[in-house]
Write a structure and sequence with these properties.
The complex is a heterodimer.
Chain A: H1 3-7, E1 25-28, E2 34-39, E3 45-52, H2 66-73, H3 85-92, E4 98-101, E5 106-113, H4 117-129, H5 135-154, H6 156-168, H7 191-201, E6 207-213, H8 220-228, H9 235-238, E7 259-264, E8 270-278, H10 287-299, H11 304-312, E9 316-323, E10 331-339, H12 343-359, H13 364-376, H14 378-381, H15 385-397, H16 408-413, H17 417-427, E11 434-439, H18 441-451, E12 455-460
Parallel strand pairs in A: 2-6, 7-11, 7-12
Antiparallel strand pairs in A: 1-2, 3-5, 3-6, 4-5, 8-10, 8-11, 9-10
Chain B: E1 9-12, E2 18-23, E3 29-36, H1 50-57, H2 69-76, E4 80-85, E5 90-97, H3 101-118, H4 121-140, H5 147-155, H6 170-175, H7 178-188, E6 194-200, H8 204-215, E7 240-246, E8 252-259, H9 265-278, H10 284-292, E9 296-304, E10 311-319, H11 325-341, H12 346-364, H13 367-381, H14 386-396, H15 399-409, E11 415-422, E12 435-436
Parallel strand pairs in B: 2-6, 7-11
Antiparallel strand pairs in B: 1-2, 3-5, 3-6, 4-5, 4-12, 8-10, 8-11, 9-10
Helix pairs in contact in B: 1-4, 3-8, 9-15, 10-11, 11-15
Classes of the chains: A alpha+beta, B alpha+beta.
């Protein structure tokens, strides 16, 4: 056979090997803390994630950034290990200890050889339970955050995200703020405020530790009880906060009609674009239909947006769209950077795709492509214990049922064309959409004004590092 | 802790295609990775950026695959994919559920065997626009975005193939023609210029049969041009300095050094040195510049392994507001001088070794990483077994090795210092390192 003849026959797939999401076990310690273990044979590196359902979404506006700063400051020293001594002790085990916070949760995590898991858990417990929040280190971390805010202003893609979130949410929604705090709130974050946050974090009823890897021969619940059995010890209860998981934060939309906010940065060779509105929380009844719909719109490599704006028009290196699902309704957005002269057509095409998603049914081929991808890629996503542990942590934080992952593929397979269209109509709202951009208004301003996408506001952005040339460019607060 | 050995077979088809297969049935997934022995170092003046632009064209269809259908078929099979271009290579990879392996092999064979049947001006023009937007979003429209390109220019002399950026220049991208694409394909995209690695839930005999079937008839190119001598003097000879005025809020220094090639034990020593200098909060640079003296916002230090005459070792430090950038530069350089003057402590070395062991174990868990490394070591060093020796090489590095390598490499006459200063007018930026499709 010639090469052409051989290649002219497309292979068909073989018989899929059975796959089930790994089984996990749950133990509840006397304190109320959950221990979730998942044995993944022949994976000698173990992942342990301690999750506390106490995220930045719960903090009051006047101390925005306190939760994340508390997490950062926890690696600055503990009662037994001043400074970075605890991190160094972890390094001797070959383990890097991380503490971080998101909108939804506080996390402390470590990856370590199974044989050293007990020692690593002792360090993790010390880190989480007994940080000292030294005044001078907290001051340094505050300054680092303020410096980082300067860097945000210089980086168009970070700047546009910040502006987009601030645009779509009302001022009493935490999601409109920067999770790390801003120039106004960060200077307020004293060690005492961080200690108060820390006390609310020490709440075993809101806490789970998820541990995965080759756990053969290890009594993990006993190891956790030994390291973290006294976690909290009433500290959180003493704060007077209501017991149990917190309510989702307020997520009201600040936008009730199409609007355009264009942040002018002279000389930009591209326009960073975010188009969207308040989206959805993780716990929605039509979660799987939304996932398939978002994949078709802007998730797959060959999504409608990619095929149009990248592969047909060449306006961008990449464009995506999706829902950032949190305990509360996170943003829905179309995200891209386009060459400056293509700004207006890129907005038009994106809006047209949103409209098309609502108004016309997807084709059976589109449904199959998205469904088969999401179903087929599922085992690839969970090749390593770290990924399995992260997914199980998500179930805990979002209060999802234990079989959520086990039935994921069945649910996706059951999604219909009608369900996708209904999801688009229910959750994509061009009539109250915000178009937020960072780019060169001198080049595109007139065309943008003429396009009539919505009420247009052009803001001359503060340009850090630039001197105050014509009185319209603000100075960086150095 | 022991890192399990990666067992594999290593053979060549009659047309020269090097085939490496490694079975691992833990998860029902398989990784396919092809490395072509061509990268930006094979480009000639006036044609910069071509290897990478070509990588994009590889997703625009072949005889039996339509434009972007490669992505569609792999994703519909539940797979992930991409391609990347760098100085020394261009690679393409898919990870798929194991029952879809044949599809991935067929797709790679169809474009290796028949790409030119589908090549047209419209697709080339479209991907040229996409790549120009990649250049804008990855480099030109980013603060400090062209730092790596500037370090390349200082560390490698103008006549050296590592001197110019992988992404190329806008002018050269504009000049790329269909004839260039066809010529590049015929020259470099031949089976005898490629390594195919298959790792995961696969039966070797079946995989080998499929590879023979789909790739076996693709003709070799007996005349792949050899690169000229890329040897370089071991050091720059004199410190190179450049100050860039840009619209950035904080000054930032970048440091570049010419270093030994990968597989040289001194390169391994520099990797361990990088961990001790800037790997985490207990590292020397972080501790002194960020935690204690509080003159820097952040620090970094890393080695980038290459084979053509020299590797590149690079560092960076962002200057805190109100601090004299010269003070930060001095402190950074003092730490580099110190590690070449005195041995690191036993504890520093023990911590670095333990962390490197974990990082290696973490990386080698995944089939895609194993496939990539096997293909890399086969392509660059003709030694895929290096996948099982690399960790041992790191662990064998002594304090004396670190001191000697640092003294030789991290010295002023081998240093390029690039400083970005906040300025009124932005300068036109250029580029960086690795670019994905």
């Amino acid at each position: 056979m010639t090469l052409q003849e051989i290649l002219s026959v497309r292979p068909s797939p073989g018989q899929p090997r059975a796959y089930d999401f790994p089984l996990f076990e749950r133990t509840v310690l006397p304190s109320g803390m959950q221990v979730i273990t998942v044995n993944v044979p022949d994976r000698p590196l173990v992942s342990a994630n301690l999750l506390i359902c106490r995220g930045a979404g719960e903090e009051p506006a006047d101390v925005a950034g306190a939760t994340i700063l508390t997490a950062r400051a926890m690696t600055e020293g503990t009662e037994r290990y001043p400074g970075v001594e605890l991190l160094e002790a972890g390094e001797r085990l070959g383990a890097t200890l991380h503490v971080d916070a998101s909108w939804d949760a506080f996390t402390a995590s470590v990856e370590v050889a199974a044989s050293r898991l007990g020692a690593a858990l002792e360090l993790l417990a010390e880190l989480v339970e007994r940080p000292t929040f030294p005044e001078s280190d907290v001051a340094r971390l505050r300054e680092e955050r303020l410096n980082d805010l300067l860097q945000v202003k210089a980086d168009p893609r970070r700047r546009v995200d910040q502006a987009f979130n601030a645009t779509i949410y009302t001022s009493d929604s935490p999601y409109g703020r920067s999770a790390g705090g801003d120039e106004e709130t960060v200077p307020r974050l004293t060690p005492d405020i961080l200690r108060a946050v820390h006390r609310t974090v020490l709440d075993p009823v809101r806490t789970a530790i998820v541990i995965g890897g080759d756990l053969a021969g290890l009594d993990v619940p006993r190891m956790v009880e030994s390291a973290l059995g006294s976690f909290g010890d009433g500290a959180a209860a003493a704060t007077g906060a209501p017991a149990g998981f917190p309510p989702a934060p307020r997520t009201d939309s600040a936008v009730d009609r199409p609007i355009v906010r264009f942040y002018h940065r002279p000389g930009s060779v591209q326009t960073e674009l975010r188009i969207g509105h308040v989206g959805l929380p993780r716990r929605v009844p039509d979660f799987h239909a939304v996932q398939v719909m978002a994949a078709i719109l802007g998730g797959l490599f060959n999504s409608r947006l990619q095929m149009n704006l990248r592969e047909d028009k060449g306006y961008t290196y990449g464009i995506g769209a999706g829902f950032d699902m949190r305990r509360g309704a996170g943003p829905f957005s179309v995200r891209t950077a386009v060459q400056t002269p293509a700004t207006v057509p890129s907005i038009s095409e994106s809006l047209a795709e949103l409209k098309r998603m609502r108004e016309t049914s997807v084709t059976p081929a589109e449904l199959a492509a998205a469904r088969d991808y999401l179903v087929g890629v599922f085992p690839l996503r969970f090749e390593t214990p770290g990924a399995v542990v992260a997914a199980l942590g998500g179930l805990f934080v979002h209060e999802l049922p234990d079989d959520e992952l086990a039935r994921y593929r069945r649910e996706v397979e059951a999604v219909t064309i009608d369900a996708i269209q209904k999801a688009a109509q229910d959750h994509i709202h061009p009539d109250r959409i915000a178009i937020v951009a960072v780019g060169d208004a001198d080049v595109v301003g007139a065309e943008l004004a003429a396009a009539g996408f919505g009420e247009l506001e052009v803001i001359t952005d503060e340009m850090p590092g630039a001197a105050d040339e014509a009185g319209e460019i603000g100075e960086a607060d150095e | 802790m022991t890192v399990p050995a990666v067992r594999f077979t290593d053979e060549r088809l009659a047309n020269g295609l090097r085939l490496i297969i490694s079975e691992d049935h833990l998860a029902p997934v398989v990784a396919v990775c092809i490395w072509y022995n061509v990268g930006s170092k094979n480009e000639v003046p006036g044609k910069t950026g071509f290897a990478h632009l070509f990588e994009h064209v590889m997703f625009q269809g072949s005889s039996h695959v339509a434009k972007t259908e490669h992505m569609a078929l792999i994703q519909a099979a539940g797979g992930t994919l991409n391609g990347t271009t760098f100085f020394d290579r261009t690679n393409y990879f898919e990870t798929v559920p194991s029952h879809q392996l044949e599809l991935a092999l067929w797709l790679e064979a169809d474009r290796m065997g028949t790409l030119l049947d589908a090549l047209n001006q419209e697709n080339l023009d479209n991907q040229r626009d996409v790549v120009k937007n990649e250049k804008r979003s990855s480099y030109d429209n980013r603060p400090y975005g062209d730092w790596f390109h500037k370090l390349q220019e200082h560390v490698f002399p103008p006549e050296h193939p590592y001197h110019h950026p992988v992404i190329g220049s806008m002018e050269d991208l504009d000049a790329a023609s269909l004839e260039d694409v066809a010529g590049f394909f015929r020259t470099y995209y031949a089976p005898n210029n490629a390594v195919l690695a298959i790792v995961g839930d696969v039966e070797s005999r079946q995989a080998r049969a499929w590879v023979e079937r789909y790739f076996g008839e693709i003709p070799a190119n007996p005349a792949i041009p050899k690169l000229g001598d890329m040897t370089l003097p071991p050091v720059l000879g004199a410190e190179a300095r450049e100050t860039v005025q840009e619209r950035v809020p904080l000054p930032r220094h970048f440091f570049g050094f010419r270093a030994p090639v990968i597989a040289d034990p001194r390169y391994d020593a520099l990797e361990v040195a990088a961990q001790i200098l800037a790997g985490g909060k207990g590292s020397r640079l972080y501790r002194r510049l960020v935690r204690e003296e509080r003159i820097a916002q952040d620090v970094a230090f890393f080695a980038l392994g290459l084979i053509g005459g020299a590797s590149l070792v690079a560092g960076q430090a962002t200057v805190r507001p109100g601090v004299d950038p010269a003070v930060v530069e001095r402190a950074f350089e003092e730490e580099l001088e110190k590690i070449g003057r005195e041995p690191v402590t036993d504890d520093e070395l023990a911590r670095a070794r333990a962390l490197i062991e974990t990082y290696e174990l973490e990386a080698l868990q995944r089939v895609d990483e194993r496939a990539d490394r096997l293909a890399m070591y086969a392509t660059l060093l003709d030694d895929p077994e290096m996948i099982n020796r690399q960790l041992g090489r790191y662990l064998a590095v002594t304090a004396a090795d670190i001191q000697a390598a640092a003294a030789e490499v991290l010295r002023p006459e081998n240093r390029a210092v690039l400083t970005y200063m906040p300025a009124l007018e932005a300068t036109a930026g250029t580029t960086d390192e690795e670019t994905a499709a």
